Amino acid sequence: MSKICIFAGTTEGRLLAERLGNQPIEVLVCVATDYGETLLAPTENLKVSAKRLSEQEMEELFRKEQFSCVVDATHPYATEVTENILAACTSCGIKYLRLLRGASQEEGDAVVVSDTKSAAEFLASTDGNILLTTGSKELSVFAPLASRIYARVLPMESSFISCKEAGIEPSHILAMQGPFSVDMNLALLKSCAAAYLVTKEGGRSGGFAEKMEAAKQYGATMVIIGRPEQKSGMEFSELLNHLCRRFGLHLPPKVRVVGMGPGSEAAMTEEVQNAIKTADCLIGAKRMLKTASAHQTVYDAISPEKIAQFIQDHSEYHSFTVIMSGDTGFFSGTKKLIPLLHDCDVEILPGLSSLSYLCAKLGESYEDVVNISLHGRAHNLVPDVRRYPRIFTLTGGENSIDSICRQLCDAQLGDVKVSVGERLSYPEEKVTIAAAKELCNREFDSLSAALIENPAANPIVTHGLPDELFQRGSASDGAVVPMTKMEVRSVALSKLQLTKRAVCWDIGAGTGSVAIEMAMQTDGDVYAIERKEDAVDLLKENCRKFGTHNVTAILGTAPEGCEDLPAPTHVFIGGSAGNMKDILELILQKNPHARIVATAVTLESIGELCSCMKQFSFAETVCITSARDRRAGSYHLMMGQNPIHIFTLQNE
Predict the structure, then answer these.
(1) How many CB atoms lie within 10 A of CB 166?
(2) What mean pLDDT is predicted for residues 197-214?
(3) More reliable by pLDDT, 523 or 574
(4) Which ranges in 125-202 belong to alpha helices (H)?
(5) Who contacts 376 (Cβ-Cβ below 8 Å, separation ≥6)?
(6) N vs C: which end of the chain shows fewer Cβ within 10 Å?
(7) Rounded CA gap, 371 and 271, in Å?
(8) pLDDT band at residue 206, thresholds of 50, 70 and 90?
C-alpha cells in the first residue's frame, strides 16, 4: 500500500488528511503540538504524530518510512518549516508537494505591512484598542502595546504562557478555536471596543474574508501582515485531484439538496437544519444563505449549472448542502440539478412547501388544488381559473399578485376569491383574503403565494363557441371583419388535432375566433396573423374578453409576416390573400411535419389548394354545407350557408 506524509499546520492540511483517512493509502500526519493532534481522529490508515521535527529528524523519518510523496500543508508564514521539509525531501529523493493557501481577493482600505514588527511599529503611532488575531508565536513583538491588546489565541497552555510573557492581562486573553463567522468576529470587536484588527493574510480558509467583513461593519481598521512568497505548488482542489489520479483514489463529494421551506429557520425540518449546520460549504440564493449560514463558506448561486460546476471545482470541501426554497419536489431547481451531480454522493431532503403552509394557515386541505408557478415563468392563468375550482400559484417578477388580479378582472373573473400569503413563516407574515377585484391596486410582497378559488369553474371543454360571443365590428372600409363561423370552426379545429403544447399559427385571423379557441384548447403559444389594422385591434379586444393571454396578434401579410415566428406544429389558414403556395412553402420550411388545415370558399382558392395537395404524402378534403334557421313571420326558414371546403395537409 502506498504511503504519504502530510505536514498539517493549517485547516487545509487537516481537511486533506480527513479526506484521505478512509482511502486505501497509508497517511502519516505530522503536527507541531498536542492540540493539533486532538483535531484529527486517527483511522486504520491514518496516524498522527505530534512533535516538532528538525530537518535532520524529518530526513530520518522519510528514509525509515519510504513515503511515496510528502505534502507540505504548513502555514504560509511558517517559512522555516517549509525550507526544512523541502531540504529533507530533496536529500531523500522523495516527491515534494506544496499545498498553497489561496490569497484573499480584496484588501479594501486596510493598512498592509510587510511583517509583524512593522505592524507593531504602525500601531505604536495610533490610539485605541487592538484585536490581535495572529496567534501567540510572535506576541512578544507587541509587548509595548500590551495594555491596548486583546489577543485571540488557541486554548493551549503554550498560548497562555506567551500571553503572560508579553504582558497581556488575563481579561484580555480570548482563548478560542475557529472557524469564526462574521457575526462572531463582529461580537468580539464590539466587546473589545477595538479600533484595529490585526491579522495575517490567511486567505479564504483562514477566515480572512469574515474578518474583513466584520471590521467593515464595525468600522475598525484592518492591519494586514502580508504573507511571505510561497513556494510553487497547488491549491487544495488541484492537489487532491493530483493525489487521486496518482494513487487511483475516488473521493465523491457528499451533496445534500435540501428544501428550506417557506423561508424562515423556524419552518425548516430538524433534518434540514442539521444538514445545514454540518456542511462544509453552503450553496443557494443570497436570501436563503443569509438565514441559514453560520460559519461555513457560502456560494451565492441559483443556476444548476453554476452550482454543479462550483462543486466540481472545489474538492477542498467534503460536504456541500445546496439550499432550495420551499420543497425540493415542488417547482424546485432540484429537478435540473440532480442529473448534473452524477459523480457525487447525493441525498435529497424535502422541506415544507408554501402550498401546505398557506393551506394550513387557512385551515383547508389541498388534495384537490391545481399547482401553477408564475415565479419567473410565463403562463396564462385565466383559462386555469375558469377550468379548476382551486388553484395555488407562486408569484414573482412581473407576475405579482396585483397584476394577476387585474388579468382576472379583465376576463370577467373579478369575483373569484383570492387568499394571499405574504412572507410566509417570517415574523411579518400576513394573510389577506378578498375578491380579485378588491386586490387589483394593492401592493404585495414579492415573496407571496396565493390560493385562487372559483366555485363556478365549469368551462365548456369542446370547441365551437357561439358566434355571438365574439365582437365583430367593422373595418375602415365599412365591411364587417370576417369570422370563421361556429360550424366550420368546430370541424376545422377537430381536423387540426391540437396537442397540449402546440405552437399554432392562425393566418388571416380576422376577429380571432379560431386563434382564441386554439388558445383555450392548448397550453402552447398561438400567433394570429392579420393584414388589416382594424381587424387586429378587434382581435386583441376579443382576446382580452376571453382572457387568452397566450395569443400574440401580428399585423402583417403572410408569408412575410410569419418569417420571424417560431416553427409551428399546427396551422390554420382562413385567408391567404392569394399567397397560398408561398405560405405553405414557408410553413414546410420551418417544420416539414406541421399539420395544416385550410378553408376555401371561392373556386379560385379551392383550385389553388388542390394544386398544392400534390406536394403532400397525406391530404384530405371535405366539403360541408350548413343551414341556419331564420324567422319569417310565424314560420322559420332554413337559410343555407356557402359550401366550405376544408383541406387537411400533413407530411407523414
Answers:
(1) 20
(2) 80
(3) 574
(4) 157-165, 182-192
(5) 396, 397
(6) C
(7) 26
(8) low
What are the tens digits of pLDDT across the range 60-86?
Answer: 999 999 999 999 988 877 888 999 999
Number of C-alpha atoms within 13 angstroms, CB side, residue 307? 27
Residue type, 46: L
CA 462 to CA 447: how far, in whole Å? 37
What pLDDT score does 105 carry? 46
- Give CA–CA dist 387/380, Å, rounded: 12
Residue-wise pLDDT tens digits, 531-540? 999 899 999 9
For the chain, the residue count is 652
pLDDT, mean over the chain: 88
Collapsing DSSP to helix, strand or coil, 10 comes out as coil
Task: Answer whether 534's CB lies under 8 Å from 473's CB.
Answer: yes
- pLDDT above 60: residue 56: yes
Q: What whole-number distance in Å separates Cα of residue 320 and Cα of residue 530?
A: 55
- Tell me how many degrees the CA angle 226-101-5 measures, rounded to the nearest 5: 125
Under DSSP, is residue 265 helix (H, G, I), strand (E, B) or coil?
A: helix
Extended strands (E) in 471-577: 504-507, 526-530, 551-555, 570-573
Asked whether the beta carbons of 242 and 236 are under 8 A apart, the reply is no
Distance (Å) of CA 584 to CA 164, 412, 483, 495, 596: 92, 38, 22, 17, 9
Distance CA 5, CA 20 (A): 11
Residue that has been written with the C-alpha cell 363561423 in this structure: 485
pLDDT band at 106 (very low <50, low <70, confident <90, very high): very low
- 253-281 core/surface letters (b: 16 or more CB in 10 A; e: else): bbbbbbbbbbbeeebbbeebeebbeebbb
Q: Would you state the pLDDT for residue 382?
A: 85
Taking a C-beta distance cutoff of 8 angstroms, is the pair 408, 416 a contact?
yes
Helices vs strands, H then E, count in the chain: 21, 31
C-alpha cell, 548: 387568452
Between helix 580-590 and helix 603-612 the angle, nearest 10°, is 40
Cα–Cα distance for residue pair 552/561, rounded to 1 Å: 13
- DSSP assignment of 98-164, as one string? EEEPPPPS--TT-EEESSHHHHHHHHHT--SEEEE-S-STTGGGGGGGGGGEEEEE-SSHHHHHHHH
Rounded to an integer, what distance in angstroms lies between the CA atom of residue 411 and that of residue 385? Answer: 10
327: Cβ contacts below 8 Å, ≥ 6 apart: 259, 261, 350, 351, 352, 353
Residue 527 Cα distances to 151, 411, 530, 536, angstroms? 71, 20, 10, 12
- The answer to whether the CB of 551 falls within 8 A of the CB of 516 is yes
- The C-alpha torsion from 339 through 343 and 345 to 349, rounded to 10°, is -20
Cell, residue 481: 371583419
Q: Is 570 helix (H, G, I), strand (E, B) or coil?
A: strand
CB 29 within 8 A of CB 16: no
Q: What phi, psi does 448 have (nearest 5°)?
A: -130, 155
Q: Which residue has the cell 443557494?
A: 284
Strand partners, 194: 129
* Helix runs in 497-546, H state only: 513-521, 533-546
Give CA–CA dist 301/279, Å, rounded. Answer: 16
